[in-house]
Amino acid sequence: MQNADSQSYRTLRKKSGEFSTRSEYLDHELTIMKPKRWGLNLPGRDFNFELEDLIPAIAGTIGLTVMCTAITNAFATAYGLDTAFIVENVRVDMLVVCVFFVILFSGLFNPRANLAGIHGPMMPLIPLMAVSGTHPLALGALIAIFGLILSITKGGSRLVNVTSQGVAGGLLVYLGAIGTIGQVGAMRKWAESIEMGYVALVVLIVNLALYAMLARMKKRWLAIPICSGLAAVTALILGAPFEFTTTPGLPSFNPFYWWGDDTGWKLGMPGISHIISSLPFAILAVAMWSPDFLGHRIFQEMNYPKKATNVLMDVDDTMIGCSLRQVVSAFFGSGCITSSWGTYMIPAAIAKRPIPGGAIATGILSITVAIAGFPMDIAVWRPVLSIALLVGVYLPLLEAGMEMVQDTKDTQSAGICIFASAIVNPVFGWALTMFLDNNGMIGDKDRPKKLNIADKLIIPGMALLVSTIAMAIVGMLPGIPAMIGH
């Protein structure tokens, strides 16, 4: 009789009716998958599509549309570009990324790599990038180079592995809490801007009740489509204004148009000065990857069965995907900065689905949205946007972080991580607390005895040093002026 480890996915697969619950069936699917790394994975042979794949697909599409539009709008404002530029540039990014890196890379050729999404925390730095003379194409190339170096040397997975549960839990709690507060504030501000402050209150309360009910029923994986739909319907019933403005169409994929002197970005091709000014921002972007990737993988580990190790996202392969996505999308004209796709991975983990099926569904849905145009208007409408981010990303992050903090040692590390993150930002909080925790200054005093010199001092020390220097250069350390841009 063949050992289960040597049998194929197709051989081991069972019908859902053979299980007493849907959850048991999904757990079984996760444990029998053996996705090929850097090889062709086919539907039916190596994985299957399930109804649950639509949940991360819808969430991921909303997330990509929202964040890509936000990043591109910030660049357009900083460089004095018009609205038409924003729509066309968003379309370029969505179409290029979804064909090459969502469907082909993560869907078919490396299902261990999470989708390469948008790097939201870099958005506040975009005005400073413009003042400093940063060129989006030079920035994209540098991020790709640094990201590939980190992934090839296994630096990304090493950083994840040397981060304790307390530090990781604190990081998730901070990100979840700040994001939740931010989205609630954004909803209130939007409602006040249309002189209908009560709309935000009603939309938030009804969705709070619905989310609590879904959590009670253990159906949180349905939260994004159901809560977003409820938010839209509630806001419209209460009279909130909405209109479609984006028409169907395809953008230009000619790099010479986007990087011309009088067309596209109107910046021309990058020179040496552009590369130098882009350097610290590229270092900082890649330095931020590890805590981002850590949070996404933790969600899989918390929701997948213990034996489902074959389908956990590979941090280093995800970095390769993000690096290649960055340089290719920038070549075709996109200004988006990339990172691991949280609005896809977190709902996928909660729904107990592996990467490939949902990735292909996300790609197809996002391509449809980009070409049709008008669904982009719905996705970026404030009630839909904020509720999708709240129930799909920030509340799950907050819950997962609190679940990870289980004893006094973890609580101490988590508390210091939250404190340090509040002083500067989550990257600094993660790097500083990891260094202190791995050397026994906080948390578990026995932890350093289990670590070698590289894991105790060299890796955490380099992470803290490099990220702090990069933040100092671009002005992200409170009270210290930026060293560039003057």
TrEMBL record:
Matches recorded under InterPro entries: DUF3360 (IPR021794)
Positions of transmembrane segments: 54-80, 92-109, 129-150, 162-184, 196-214, 221-242, 267-289, 355-374, 380-402, 414-437, 457-480
Keywords: Membrane, Transmembrane, Transmembrane helix
Pfam families in UniProt: DUF3360
Keyword Transmembrane: yes
Protein name (record): DUF3360 family protein
